[in-house]
Amino acid sequence: MFDNNQRFGSSDFVLDAAYERGCTFWDTADVYNELIGKWLKRTDKRNGVFIATKFGYYKDDRIINGDPKYVREAANSSLKKLGVSCIDLLYLHADMTHLFRTGKIKHIGLSEVSAATITRIAAVEVGYSPFNLEIEDAQIGVLSVCRELGITLIAYSPLGRGILTSQVKSAADFLGSDFRRVFPKYSDENFPSILKLAEGLKEIGKHHRATGGLVALAWLFAQGHDIIPILGTKEVKYLEENLGALNVKLAPEDLKHIRDYIEMSKVTKGDLYPAWGMDLAYADTPELGKTAVQT
Fold it and tell me: Which sequence ranges form a coiled-coil region, renumbered to this chain (predicted)?
């Protein structure tokens, strides 16, 4: 939900505004759960929000740690940082069943896993936007399996990590610390395709008095009620702007034109992550009864 270096004060205003506007599904992670915990302590509104948090990703080692002992440690750490007795939805980013059975979490979710793994879960978080349609791929099968099983899909990066807002014109605009610099989809070679799609969204937006970014969000809302987009922001003004997408009603011909722009731009071609990231995305996990570790 927030930059880990962001001061609590500014985050506090955003959380207040989100709650007041009815945005009560809060997606966070173990590295910044403390921000949410401070807000909950100040407002005493724990029962008014649904908290989804995640754990498991070791950035330095570039691995997903699903060790049963670590799972429990990470979950207990999140409970402490959040200041709550139970987490509504916990993603692995197994010993998940232990946490569920002991009442420390209400639901179990996954982030970027395979279709086979999804069949054993309650919610899935994955990237989805006009910029990234990987989950629609028949070989990956994530979207189709979620819908077959009635599983909610939590869509992160609905604006393609900001790329569909037209604020970035080339890879040279990324600052030295910007992780998008190492992602193939954001390379200089792909920017002509990115700009084509962004321009197409802006063109459709003219008919709705909306920005291209709002059209991208409206497109995601139009994909179905079983998809919940994560509207990440650091400022109240951007939160309010993004919520304006709820008022953008795309007609069937608009949705067709967006698909046409996606196809013509070829922006969805190529890997979203570097090689090490693609090795982790949409991974299979063994069923609990087939694992060697039981505690």
Answer: none
Per-residue pLDDT tens for 30-76? 877 899 999 999 999 999 999 999 887 655 555 667 677 888 888 99
Count of CA atoms in the C-beta half-sphere (13 A) of 164:
33
Sheet bearing 87-92, strands edge to edge: 25-27, 50-55, 87-92, 105-111, 123-127, 152-156, 227-229
Q: Which residues are catalytic?
A: 32
Rounded Cα–Cα distance for residues 257 and 263 (Å): 10
pTM above 0.90, yes or no: no
φ and ψ of 26, to 5 deg: -110, 115
Helix (H), strand (E) at residue 206 = helix 191-206
Contact 198/212 with Cβ under 8 angstroms?
yes
N- to C-terminal Cα distance for the chain? 33
**Percent of the chain beyond pLDDT 70?**
79
- Whether 98 and 68 have beta carbons less than 8 Å apart is answered as yes
Question: Which amino acid appears at position 191 of this protein?
Answer: F
Location of structure tokens 């232990």: 98
Alpha helices in 44-124 (DSSP H): 68-82, 96-101, 115-118
C-alpha–C-alpha distance, residues 69 and 268, integer Å: 38
Q: Assess contact for 159 and 165: CB atoms under 8 A.
A: yes
